[in-house]
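pasting for the record
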Amino acid sequence: MSSAIEPELLPLTAEEGPAGLTVGAVPLTELARRFGTPLFVYDEEHLRRRCREAVAAFGRDNVAYASKAFLCTAMARLAHEEGMLLDVASGGELAVALRAGVPADRIVLHGNNKDEAELRRAISARVRHIVVDSFDEMDRIERLHATGELPPARIQLRIAPGVAAGAHESIRTGGSDSKFGFGLADGSATTAVRRAAGSPAMVLEGVHAHVGSQVLDATELAAGAAAVARFAAQSGVCRLTVGGGLGVVYEAGQSAPTFAEWAGRVRDAARGAGWEGDVAVEPGRSIVARAGLTLYRVGTIKHIHGVRTYVSVDGGMSDNLRPALYASRYEAFLPRSSRSPRPLRARLVGKHCESGDVIIDNAALPADLQVSDVLATPVTGAYGYAMASNYNKLPRPAVVFVRDGDARVVVRRETEDDLLRLDADATGVEMSVRPGAGELVAARQSSVQSV
């Protein structure tokens, strides 16, 4: 591939200007100069439009933003402002959503192994419903209710329908061999419905299923919807949620269904399976992926004669784990000349001490690529910042929202102080546990070694 980057991979407000590519009317090279690199940049208008499209396709009370794709208080607030529910998958995500001002009755709690503290907080806050994933979780809910301190939990049951879809085995979640949900094939789903319906600790509202992620064929999503809809109709519940999973275009030549196409397919499938009510969904990637891109700065270009060219940037697997985790593929371009041909072939790598720290294995890049250039990887708005780590003690990047010529930091860049903040021995004080006591004791390290 030697052509310029495809517009379909860029945020909706991306335009070529005198200073190169702009997003939200702000030059990307200017953002890199002002805020440093690596940097996550989100087109706020793109985010808002995608939220509105999803709500228009499914209805205000039938679409929840799957916040695991990308969450901070600004994103939670934005999704809520645009009429979406919020799907959280841990106590931490719940805390962020509540801090953002999202009402608890607009929040759904997921998770395959919720502990009692997470369940207690969700029930006491009166979240919209909890998606129950196992009989052990039912035990925990019933123990909490038995204290007399909490109301019954409003729940949906997660079902493993025996239908799996997705671009990689690790993100296919709906099969019978899954850590998620009650299986249809072994009868555990039917048992779960009976138990929940008869428990004073739970109010059974519906069933839920999620067959996988990065699905580019709507018929696969429809097949999963049909399987769980048939079970929902037979079970007599009043709500049906078919999860998310709608894929996005990461490379030129791919195509993905629209929200309207997805809605039409899953509704038709549910109707055909005997379900007469609304169908709810939980999109995440399809809301945020294309809205975001990552800016890096090139630090090293290494030509190995007869082998390949390596281009190293100042981030890597600590800000985009997906290539290493799922063999995910991306493209790259230079914001200073986004319309330039890309005849150079190189392995785009990060700065981590891993040979597997590869962002793009065979990247198409402009021939005039230079050290210190700002390089962008588009369609990184989902699962980039969400999975970011401090591997090799790299501070996590900042996140910037751009719109109408303005840029605002919604997550600041970490500092070295942040890296040391949780280190109990950062000041030379060793923390040890006193035998027989349930408290931490600070003891200066002795300069004399015990023999």
